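Schema walkthrough. Field components (list of strings):
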Amino acid sequence: MQDQDRAVVEAISRRDVENAPLPDAEKALLRFVELVTRHAYRTTAEDVQKLRDAGWTDPQVAEAVYITAMFAFFNRVADAFGLQDPGYFWNPPPPPRPPESPSA
Amino acid sequence: MQPHIRWIDDHEATGAVEEVYRAYKVATGRPQMPGILKCFSQRPDFLQQVMDFSNTVHFSEGHLTRRQKEMIATYVSALNQCPY
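Field assembly_structure (string):
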């Protein structure tokens, strides 16, 4: 992980998106992620339009929602079982099938 | 570490749980199951589906890059840790 990535991870882990060394578009996406995480019922079409204006496509926004909700799922389960270590999510598990095309 | 809810640990896994654990360790080269996955050991059929859908959407390229998805995952987990 290069230094810049480490700076990003540290800022994000401190929930400090504004000062993370990230392009504005990614900061906008993370603000939306926070909205979905904290009060998804408040999200509006305008929130999504802001992301389009920042250059994101609807498939990308949809996928961001899937990941956001998926990690809420993992967080709830981990908390309920009492897992303390925030690094509790694992290294990537294996692809179920051997990857068809060799990844770059 | 003792979880609040009983789970099946690596050394006590048998049957379907043992199979899922072994396949995971062979594929990843990890000697121990990560805690988050052991949380699902009371339903090994569900554990397999959890790993599958994680692979499908998170641990693979998609519309977002892996880096962007990891960033989202890290941020969500940080947000969920602080009582709101």
